[in-house]
Amino acid sequence: MVMKSTLQQMSLKTRITLTFVLLMATVMGFLVIAEQLDYDELRAYVASKNLRSEAAQVEAALIKGVPPPLSSGSQLYDAVTVPDALRHFLPGYHRITQPNGQYLQVFDVQDQRYYLLHASEGYVYLEFLIDGFAPFVILLCLLCAFWIGRHTSARVTTPIKRLAEAVAQKQKPFPFLNEQDEIGVLARAFAQHSEELEHFLHRERCFVGDASHELRTPLAIIGGAAETIAVQLPPNSPLIPSAERIVRTTQEMQRQLTCLLLLSRDPATLSVADMAWRPVIEECMHRCQPWLENKPVTLHVDVPHNAIVQTNAELARSVIWNLLRNACQYTSEGEVRVTVRDETLVISDTGPGLPASINPHQFERFSHSRALHGEGLGLSIVQRIVEHLGWEMSVDSSENGCCFTLQTRGNASAAR
Length: 416
Description:
With 416 residues, the chain is α+β, with helices and mostly antiparallel strands. The protein is 54% helix and 18% strand. The longest helix has 51 residues, at 182-232.
C-alpha cells in the first residue's frame, strides 16, 4: 500500500522513467547471470550429481547380490576388469579430460573397489540448454517489456480516458483536480476552460435575449411610423420614395435580426417544416426589383410549383434573398436565373463574378471588394446559414458570371 501510494504521488514522467530503469535493471540482471554460466562447469556439476546418485544405487545392489542397474552410457569395473588408465584413481569423483572427456566415480563395497564411468556424450543436452538460454532471456525480456508497457500505458491512459469521458458528459466537478501530476494539470486546465465557456455562453444568451427584446420593439415602431408617414404624404410629395425606402430597410432589418437570432441557436433546436420553393423565390425576386430598375436584366424562374424542402423557412429565405440581391445588384445586363432540380438549388447571373479579394471556397467576413465598393459580409452570413442548415454550397465564378449551387442533402422533395 505504501509503495502504491508513493507511485501515485509521482508525476507521469517519473513513473515512465522509473519503469524503464527497472526494465533495464532486470535485463542487465539476466545478462549477468548468463555470463556466470560456464558449460564445462555446469556439465561437471551435473555429472557429479548423477554419478553419486547412480553409485549409491549400484552399491546397494552389490550388497544385496543382485545385478546393479546401469544407465545408458555407464560402465562398471571392479579391481580385476578396470583398465590400467583408471586403476590409479582413489575413491571419490574424478573428471577425466583425456581422451574424450569422461567422469569417474570410485567407491568400495565390502573391501572390493569399483569404478563407475560415465561418457561425456550423455551430457550433450546441456550444451543445447545453455545455447538456448540466450534466446530464452531475450524472449523473457520482451515479454517483461510488453507486460510493463501494457501496465504502464494502462495506468497512464486510464485517467486520461476517464477525464475525457467526464468532459464529453459535462460531468462536474472534473476528476483528478487535486492531483499534482500532469493529469491534475490537464484536469484543472479543462475545468478553467469549461468555466470560461460557461461564462461566454451565459453572455451570449443574455445578448441574444436583450437583442431580441430591445431591438425588435424599436424596429417595429420605426416601421409602423414610416408606413404611417408614407400613407399620409400627398400623392405628389417628393418624400414618398424616402418613406418607402425607410419601410423596406426596416423590414429588411427585422428579417436580418430574426436570421441572426436563429443562427445563435443550436441547429438541433431549429423548427423545421415543409417549405415551397417557388413562393419564397418569387417573393425575394419581387423585393429585388429596386436593383433592376433601368437595367437590361431579366429574371428567370425554373422552379416546379410542387417543389418543397423540409427546412427552417426564415433561414432558407435569408439564403435565397442574399444571393438574389447580390446577383441583381451587381449584374448590369443579361439575366439572373433560379433553378430547382430535386435536391439542388442553383442561382446564377451574368455579372462580373466574385472579386479577387473574396475566396469562392471560403467566404470571410469583411473581405473588401475594391471594384464593387462592397464587402463580403452577406456571403459570410450565407455560408454560416448553409452550414447551420446542414446544406452544402459550391461556387463557380468567372468574369462571365457567378453560379451558386446549393445541395440540401436529401431534405428536398416534391409534393405529390
